[in-house]
Amino acid sequence: MTAYDYDLFVIGAGSGGVRAGRVAASLGKRVAVAEEYRFGGTCVIRGCVPKKLLVYASQFSEHFEDAVGFGWTVGETSFDWKKLIAAKDAEIARLEAIYKRNLSNSGAEAIEDRAELVDAHTVRLVKSGRTVTADKIVIATGGTPNPHVALPGYELCISSNEAFDLPELPKSILIAGGGYIAVEFANIFHGLGVEVTLIYRGQEILSRFDQDMRHGLRKAMEDKGMRVILTDVIAEVTKSPAGHLIASTMGGETLAVDSVMLALGRDPNTDGLGLEAAGVEVDDLGAIVVDEYSRTNIENIYALGDVTNRVQLTPVAIHEAMCFIETAFRNNPTKPDHELIATAVFSQPEIGTVGLSEEEAAKRYAELEVYRAEFRPMKATLSGRQEKTIMKLIVDAESRKVIGSHILGHEAGEMAQLIGICLKAGVTKDDFDRTMAVHPTASEELVTMYTPSYRIRNGERV
Q1: Which terminus has fewer CB within 10 Å in the chain: N or C?
Q2: SS in 3 state form for the chain?
Q3: What is the pLDDT of residue 249?
Q4: pLDDT tens-digit profile of 413-426?
């Protein structure tokens, strides 16, 4: 039997990689986890966590406005971007330390170095020059923003990575993209007082989301003063003598802004990892090809999370890591379950969704019942805010099973998590109907929509 330095070597210390390494070490395995940048990965360092902190900060401008309708007198307010970023950095540093400490406490070795494959069982640590061997290897290097190098002037633009550490808050920003990253940052910057323009090539933002959610959020954004340009793209970005960025679009518009952010998708972070040397197969996008058990074409090498380009969500990477542990170390082959994943867009208002959109469901089911409610939330009656909450349930008419739930409104993400449990359990519309409402709440609408708003039969509304 070949003697290896480690039973498991993990490349990448994001949520998936750290979970795999920590749990394997707790089982008594010899484990090392290597990370070239910072422990915690995209989610903790420059993704979900700092983004949600910025979302919270951006909401206070509306809170101050709303307070007047409830009898509060709000004095002069001001915002300090540098103070927010310093507080964010302190929290991220705290979380990174926890990630490292959890690895250490489990018995895993944390290596702050870039790791590259030499062959199927050998890893070279670039900074130290050390070479180590491992029985099993997990690649969990995540994704990275697509720099869109085909765009003239792309080097003048920022990505979501740089948005978290801008030295100054811009007065105006143009954000290219229509996905959740673009939409969330548009709402963040707007809430902090920045003049925001969003440009997207599609006919509506947030492709693959339910159409009511897409249209409802875009209207809310425009009503708040954000400009949304659809069916257009940036053709070129240049810098004016005064220091402004000038963005020209294919549709003939010229926009002068302080900053241009490209949120045009993320690429699997596989460049220079030595995958070819180890014989690991990748697809046309550079994503590592894996089977149902997250195993690559090389038997002892696995890949988890965004680097596989399956579902780019932190909880999915953690779930895949736990399935890897069952498969590789507990003699219990387990496939990750990628069905019915609840997710949220932390815009203002939020979107929370789980299951099939109306459009997707209409292609799969002969007949649907669609339950839809649109209303002004109770808080808005005194605040004077005009935005609406939209709630939808998509039901298979034959089985009465709820196959999709979509919410646009405050705390929609929190609701989506709980509804996700219900849909995973296979509940029917009858189960919703016999559930008592919590009053007064927005979520009570989910259990008081007794009559279908409309039906869809063979793809047509009837």
Answers
A1: N
A2: CCCCCEEEEEECCCHHHHHHHHHHHHCCCCEEEEECCCCCHHHHHHCHHHHHHHHHHHHHHHHHHHHHHCCCCCCCCCCCHHHHHHHHHHHHHHHHHHHHHHHHHHCCEEEECCEEEEECCEEEECCCCCEEEEEEEEECCCEEECCCCCCCCHHHCECHHHHCCCCCCCCEEEEECCCHHHHHHHHHHHHCCCEEEEEECCCCCCCCCCHHHHHHHHHHHHHCCCEEEECCCEEEEEECCCCCEEEEECCCCEEEECEEEECCCEEECCCCCCHHHHCCCECCCCCECCCCCCECCCCCEEECHHHHCCCCCHHHHHHHHHHHHHHHHCCCCCCCCCCCCCEEECCCCEEEEEECCHHHHHHHCCEEEEEEEEECCHHHHHHCCCCCEEEEEEEECCCCEEEEEEEEECCHHHHHHHHHHHHHCCCEHHHHHCCCCCCCCCHHHHHCCCCCCEEEECCEEC
A3: 98
A4: 999 999 999 999 99
